[in-house]
Amino acid sequence: MACNCQGKREQYEVVTAAGKVVFTSGSKPTAQAVSRRYPESSVREKGTDTSETTNTAGRL
Domain range for residue 24? Predict the structure, then answer.
């Protein structure tokens, strides 16, 4: 039997500086970890235009 949460679950997207979605996850910490691999990337809730920019300064 399928899940009954249809659309109620939050999902997060990792978006590059060029605006391309490169990763989608149901976990915000996972999306934030993946976003560190892409310079100037951001994490946003799926289906929205607002995003949380990832700070890549000071990273080795």
Answer: 12-49
Could you tell me the pTM of the whole model? 0.70
d(CA 53, CA 14): 10
Residue 27 in any domain: the answer is: yes
- Asked if residue 57 is part of any domain, the answer here is no
37, 20 contact by CB (below 8 A): no
Judge whether residue 49 has pLDDT over 50: yes
Alpha-carbon distance 6 to 37, whole Å?
A: 30
Of 59, 2, 6, nearest to 41 (Cα)?
Answer: 59
The pLDDT value recorded for residue 9 is: 82
Q: Is residue 56 part of a domain?
A: no
CB–CB of 22/14 below 8 Å?
Answer: yes
